[in-house]
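Session log. Operator J.P. requested a structure for one protein chain; no other inputs attached. Running the standard single-chain path with token output.
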Amino acid sequence: MRGLRALSLSLALSLLLLTGGCGEEPAPGAAESAASSGDAEVSSPPSSAAEASPAQEASSAAEPSSAAEESAPPQEPEEGEAVIVCFSYTGNTEALARVLAAQTGAELVLLVPAEPYPDDYDATLSQAWEERENDARPAYEGTIDVSGYDTVYLGSPVWWDDLPMLVRTFLDGAELSGKTVAPFFTSGSGDAEAAYETLCGAVADAVVTQPLSLRSEQAEEAERFVSEWLSALAEEAS
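Structure written below.
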């Protein structure tokens, strides 16, 4: 895949765009835009519980799709060109994943924790922080084999300004060498830059595209943002 170029300014203000792929600085305006408060499945430093909880997603009024209300059970993906693997705590990231699935025709497979996170806001906040501090690798239900795919779309909320440790569990066990990994994030008060860099470090032998990162106020336009993101990825891959 050729080096990634910056998108137009209007799109850059809505996406967390790293123009050269992993290891590069964000495009001007992208990080600042992503830092404003908003979405739902996000986090920040422990000093501010109101901004830091993964359960913050539940307070989001706008979601990309009503399909988020009902989560599909974990399943073994069928072999094909692309698959979407997604972890979503309250449904916002899953809703974005379903928009992506509708536009790409790719199968959606959910990462479901073997032990569900608590419904209680503070309990989930504490557990997510402890997992990060202990570099934990919580288990997920079933098995997800992506070895038969060329492209893996990976969806995740941003927790404590980084990837949830459940997603790290998947990355540790997935065979992603030589594949294209296209990440998409939902975030609130923070941005997805650290999560993106963590992903790049975890899949060093894969080709990681520019990420899509949406906040709650952008959810109503998720279909447009996903379409523009996919068009940009296709253009750069051609």
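Operator note: Strands lie at 82-86, 107-110, 151-157, 180-186, 207-208, 212-214.
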